Amino acid sequence: MATTSFLASTAIFFISLSVVSLLPSAHSADFSVGYKESAVPKSDLDLLEFPLNLEYLEAEFFLFGALGYGLDKVDPSLAEGGPSPIGGKKANLDTLTSDIILQFAYQEVGHLKAIKKTVKGFPRPQLDLSASMFAKVIDKAFGKPLNPPFDPYANSINFLIASYLIPYVGLTGYVGANPKLQGAISKRLVAGLLGVESGQDAVIRALLYEHATDDVSPYQLVAADFAERISGLRNTLGRSGWKDEGLVVPVEYGAEGKIIGNVLAGDKFSVAFARTPEEILRIVYGSGNESIPGGFFPKGGNGNIAKSYLHTAKLY
Ligand SMILES: *[C@@H]1O[C@H](CO)[C@@H](O)[C@H](O)[C@H]1NC(C)=O
């Protein structure tokens, strides 16, 4: 008995020793070989840069929500001189939510770095994270003004509802970008970003699902109503059909058409929906038009794809 456990612990010691000695070289190899712009086909560059818009939005919203400050304090170089966000602030979060949102925040900082190690990227665009901007989106989702106006920073449930607005859009964008990518490094990066964005969305949805039928005070509405309305708004703004669904759905939209609970969104085969950059811009601008900035991006997104539509707008 004693001999066996001695052997076992010796084995574990040597295994962990060899894992530890492998780690640094494997890690640095990953970055020196994996992240180099010259290794990325030209046709992939814009597609890899575009999601920086959403990663900036997520990083700033989660950092402010958890800490009360954003990249300007956490990692100013990542902003590359782009203007500070408007209206972000520390949310009134319970311990669990605050812990999770802070993890999300640092994950987004990592995503910004991962993209910028692969492609040149661009500075942070102007972002609007003000409570009044979120309130406008929610009013639009319900087709009437809520009274009092929705405040994303007021409590954990409100912050999770506001968060429901964000990683999911990035997720569908990564699914949409993937088949257009040529290079192995680009595909590896996008798959990796997609994995974690999906995970964030799943955590947000699961936390909300637990409260799906609870009132969102002081409104006569439950959390599932917010999810359904926000998803409906995104489907309308995207102008490309049903690609977004709430926490509870008509049975025909549930997995295998068999169930109304919908903790994760997916098509009729439960495969994630895909969106183009144009659809994403229509949604995050809140205008339904990739040429008309607004919403989270009062001056529009940055990078070639977003700018190509802003340029068109100026001609008219
Ligand atoms: C989007 O906005 C542009 C610029 O204002 C306009 O020319 C275009 O017709 C709009 N597209 C739609 C579908 O409304």
TrEMBL record:
It holds the Pfam family Ferritin_2. Keywords: Signal. Residues 1-28 form the signal peptide. It comes from the Eukaryota. This is Desiccation-related protein PCC13-62. It comes from Hibiscus sabdariffa (roselle).
